[in-house]
Amino acid sequence: MLDKNGIARRIAKELKDGYFVNLGIGIPTLVANYIPEGIEVEFQSENGVLGMGPFPYEGEEDADIINAGKQTITTMPGASFFDSATSFNMIRGQHVDLTILGAMEVSESGDIANWKIPGKMVKGMGGAMDLVASAENIIVAMMHTNKAGASKLLKKCSLPLTGVHCVKKVVTNLALLEITDNGFVLLERAPGISVEDIKEATEGNLIIKGEIPEMIFD
Prior knowledge:
By secondary structure, this protein is α/β, with parallel strands linked by helices.
């Protein structure tokens, strides 16, 4: 199965030349490390950065240059910094081509829950609800199951929703899936993972058509 970097590498293959891409907190931030050769994309962070680069090498961090998750980042030539109001104008104005988010749960109808677990203190919902309300192309990066081994790809989310019917694709440590009106369509499986493994780990309706290829990263 894939680790977090493997999930990010596979999602990076979904990038297209000229895209403006918002990277959410967690696994999505790793996507900036794996831009395919021959294309240029602009990564946006909701705290007011356009033109994020890969993570800095150890010893080269600048504590004043961070993403929305307060991680130190690098910036590309021509990068710009602006206030949160401008950042959310960009998001709400639908100037972002692709949004990549983490999630705690995703339903077979494309609902996403990624901001709150009841009974646990949170600082706030952040910008996730603006992102899912405004974005037309959302890919979720997540683990297929929780620590107890229960599926996180569900018939219906049990946690408070961030958005409804908005997720287009999900990349997990086990598979790449597309969400349709009928459920999760299995497109690719992670190296070493069988279709049966994915079936067992998926509570939501899983649609399997023909032979499912193994992911290729090169």
